[in-house]
């Protein structure tokens, strides 16, 4: 998700999206242990999306 799209989300939507992405990351990690993952770049993409959203939450709380 791009930074512009993250900026347009509301506070509640942002929190829900962070939880969803964290669950997806956990599922990917468990799949990595139990079976072979086709696209390992998903780890980094999801982690960066989570970081973007947490950064936006921090900026909003300081404003």
Provide an overview of this structure.
- This protein has 63 residues and is mainly alpha-helical.
- The protein has one domain (3-62).
- The protein is built from 3 helices and no strands.
Descriptive terms for the model:
81% helix, 63 residues, single chain, 3 helices, mainly alpha
Catalogue the unreliable spans. Answer: none
Count of individual beta strands: 0
- Choose one word for the global shape: elongated
What would the average pLDDT be, to the nearest integer? 92
- Please provide the ordered H/E string of secondary-structure elements: HHH
Strand-pairing-aware structural class: mainly alpha
The percent range for strand residues is under 5%
Helix share, percent: over 70%
Query: How is the main sheet built?
Result: none
The overall number of domains is 1
Q: What's the number of helices? A: 3
Using only CA atoms, what is the Rg? 13 Å
What gap, in angstroms, lies between the N and C termini? Answer: 23 Å
